[in-house]
């Protein structure tokens, strides 16, 4: 392959044209990662055709449809959940039900919160608001719908084990090239009015 063609294939638009400021259209659709800030390239946003995409950017898939009540704002909800850092090797940071082995060996309580009080991350609140009791929903959480200021102490749900906290904290606090997209499975156990 001639050297000029190879250079053309390897050269990004910003480098070849001498542009230094990326256009907003060039950055749109990419995951925000501090190590790539100001560049017009990066890891593209994941989008799956078998998931429903909401206006906010949340993607979800109902693994098991529920048949019970749908929570209303102000309802107290009880959920079981698990979480994964899908942008970083799919590491689990919380396990559903009674976990087996390793760092998730202890029994865990169901998670409770009041719908609409903003005590959980926006993605969690949005996902649970349209579920029915008995349903299990898988959600893909972009960084802007996740933990505020990349700190899991500021909004729930929090991992219940030290190793889960450590895995999540490593991804959230890393200022480099780690994608902070998360995946949660949520089971709506009950709605209490």
TrEMBL record:
Pfam families on file: FKBP_C (PF00254)
UniProtKB keywords: Isomerase, Rotamase, Signal
Stretches assigned to the PPIase FKBP-type domain: 74-192
Top EC category: isomerase
Molecular function via GO: peptidyl-prolyl cis-trans isomerase activity
Protein name: peptidylprolyl isomerase
PROSITE patterns documented for this protein: FKBP_PPIASE
UniProt KW Cell membrane keyword: no
Catalytic activity, reaction form: [protein]-peptidylproline (omega=180) = [protein]-peptidylproline (omega=0)
Cleaved signal peptide residues: 1-20
Protein EC: 5.2.1.8
Gene3D superfamilies named among the record's database cross-references: 3.10.50.40
Species the sequence originates in: [Myrmecia] bisecta
InterPro entries documented for this protein: FKBP19-like (IPR044208), PPIase_dom_sf (IPR046357), PPIase_FKBP_dom (IPR001179)
Domain of life the protein comes from: Eukaryota
